[in-house]
Amino acid sequence: MKNIETKWLQDFLTLAELRNFSHAAAVRNVTQPAFSRRIKSLEAELGLNLIDRSKTPIELTLKGKQFKTTALSILQQLDDEVSRLAGSSFLGRHTVRISSSHSMAISVLPKLHACLFNPTLNTQLSVVANEVDDAVKQLIDGKCDFLFSFYEDSLQMAPYRSVYLGRSYLYCVSAVDEHGKPLFDPADNDAVPSLDYTPESYMGRALQRANRTLTPNTVCTSSMTDFIKALVMQGKGISWLPDYAIKDELAAGRLQILTAREPVPLDLYIYRYHSRLHPTCEAIWSALSKISPIDGLMSRD
C-alpha cells in the first residue's frame, strides 16, 4: 500500500489545472519550495514522473495524465464515503459524470437508459452537454468519467479507452408542404436557402472533409444541431442533420431526405481514461462495452 497523503493529490490536481508551480502553491496556501517537495514526494511514492518540468508552462507526462483521473476518482470516492457515513449524501448514490455533445445528449443518451440507469447501481448521473470540442476538453481535463462524442484521433490511443457505439449519417433534409412534398430541393433549384454548420464546428469540419456542400444561398450558420433542426422544421431552408436526431420526424413524414446530396457518415464513441474508475463507473462501462454497434443509429429503438 502506497503511503500517499490526500493533500498531495489535491496539490497535484491544482498543478495539473494551473500548470505553474508558483500559482498552484499560492492557491494551496503553501510556499513554492514546500509545494514542490510535496509533488516530488507524490512522484517518489508512486515511482512515476508525473510532471514534465522541461516545458513552460509545465505539462503532465503520459503517466501524469493517467494518474490525474485516478486522483480525481480517489478523492471523489473518499468524499462520497464520508458523506454517506455522515448521513448527508443523497441516498448514498455515487455521481457518474458524463460529458456529451448537445445532439447526442438529447437523442442518443436516453436510448442507453438500460446501461446508465441500472437501479442496482444506485447512481446519480451528472450530464453536461457542450459543443463537441468543449465536451472533449471535459474528458481531457479529467472533469468527467465518460465522454459521448464522435470519432477523435487523439482519443483512440492511450491514455484513453473507447467503445464504438455505431455509425450515424448526416442527411440533407427539407421540411415538407401540405402534400408531403419537400419545400426545397436543390436538384430543381441550386439557390434554395441553406442552413449551414459553422466551419469550426465538428459537423462543419466533417462536411468539409467529405467535400459536401448545400447551396450558395446560406441564410444562417450555427454550430448547434438542434437549432438548425428547429429552423429546418420551420421551413427556413435545407440542411444536414444526423439520422438519430430526425428519426421521428422522418417516420412521421414531417421531414424528407433529399437524395441529391450523398449522406456523410459519422462514427459515435464513448471515451474514458484508462485509469480505473469508481466501481459504479466500471459497472456502467462494462454494460456499455456489451452494446452491439449498429450501422445507422436511426434504426435503434
UniProtKB/TrEMBL annotation:
SUPFAM superfamilies: Periplasmic binding protein-like II, Winged helix' DNA-binding domain. Keywords: DNA-binding, Transcription, Transcription regulation. Signal peptide: none annotated. InterPro entries: LysR_HTH_N, LysR_subst-bd, WH-like_DNA-bd_sf, WH_DNA-bd_sf. Transmembrane segments: none annotated. It holds the Pfam family LysR_substrate. Residues 4-61 form the HTH lysR-type domain. PANTHER family: HTH-TYPE TRANSCRIPTIONAL REGULATOR, HTH-TYPE TRANSCRIPTIONAL REGULATOR YJIE. Belongs to the LysR transcriptional regulatory family. This is LysR family transcriptional regulator. The lineage of its organism: Bacteria, Pseudomonadati, Pseudomonadota, Gammaproteobacteria, Vibrionales.
